Amino acid sequence: MEKGPDLSGLPFVKMHGAGNDFVVIDSRGRGEAVVTAALARALGDRNRGVGFDQLAEIRPAPESEAGVDFSLDFWNTDGSRAGACGNATRCVSDYVMRDLGTETVTLITRRGILRAERLADGRVTVNMGHPQLNWEELPLSHAVDTLHLPLEGDPLAVGMGNPHCVFFVPDAETTDVAARGPLVERNPLFPERTNVEFASLTSPDRLRMRVWERGAGITLACGSGACATAVAAHLRGLTGRHVTLDLDGGVLEIDWREDGVWMAGPVALVFEGRIPQAFLASLT
User: Fold this and answer.
1) Quick check: is 91 in a domain?
2) 20 to 30 A Cα–Cα from 258, which one of 35, 41, 66, 178?
3) Is 85 labeled as catalytic in the residue annotation?
4) By C-alpha distance, which of 114, 65, 105 is closest to 85?
5) Residue 148 covered by a domain
């Protein structure tokens, strides 16, 4: 008799927000984090693993932070850590809200304490905090005008818990993101590398944006990148503070308010699964 499927192992869910896809591991009931750089790289392989743009691990809230529902860690496909991930934050917030039976959650990431809400139309919105516009906060390698970086194309630098370099181009559709993105990502001006956005104005307060994410490459959407691009567009006088962005995988709405940059968009649970013990053992 053939043996059935291995139902032991590490449970996970696959989610996406506007095509930006994630593996989510819920470690709230565990004594310690389970994700390592090796596990992130293995799961991130779209041929030999599960595949994702980022991996999000849900952790218990620190005891010192009253009123916080959970904490959240992010990993890239190359095994590096990500300081922020807006669409993953929205997806995980939806997952936890359904688990807790609430319409709002408060969470903590390296970015700080964030608040997420479910809207009446089913979308999830999250306050990603205030943008970082000082060169030291981003960080950059030396003092420069972050609104006019000394790079070809006159980009801006905006931090959203992770660094972003935003280019405004005549037509984002025809921009060679695969060629330009990695060169900017590893420019010496960015000691921790950077995400790279290319955006063009398509109508009042509406942008077409494409993105190269550090540690992941081209993705269908990037939430923190959409926030950074909307901030940059307003600072350049191209838009107001409420901006709609059309990305490769869907539409995100950004609203730069007094209390921070809010991002709203769709979320989807794709499937649930388990990582077999044999797969986990092969990484040690």
Assistant:
1) yes
2) 66
3) yes
4) 114
5) no
Q: Is the pTM of this model over 0.85?
A: yes
- Which entry of 85, 91, 165, 227 is annotated as an active-site residue? 85
Contacts for 268 with CB less than 8 Å, ≥ 6 apart:
15, 16, 17, 91
Q: Which domain holds residue 204?
A: 156-251
Residue 144 lies in a domain: no
In a shared domain, residues 171 and 121: no
- Out of 91, 165, 222, 227, the active site residue is 222
CA-based Rg of the chain, rounded to a whole angstrom? 19
Per-residue pLDDT tens, the chain, 284 aa: give them.
345 555 578 999 999 999 999 999 999 998 789 999 999 999 999 999 999 999 999 999 988 888 999 999 999 999 999 888 999 999 999 999 999 999 999 999 988 899 999 999 999 999 999 999 999 999 999 999 999 999 999 999 999 999 999 999 999 999 999 999 999 999 999 999 999 999 999 999 999 999 999 988 999 999 999 999 999 999 999 999 999 999 999 999 999 999 999 999 999 999 999 999 999 999 87
Residues counted in the chain:
284
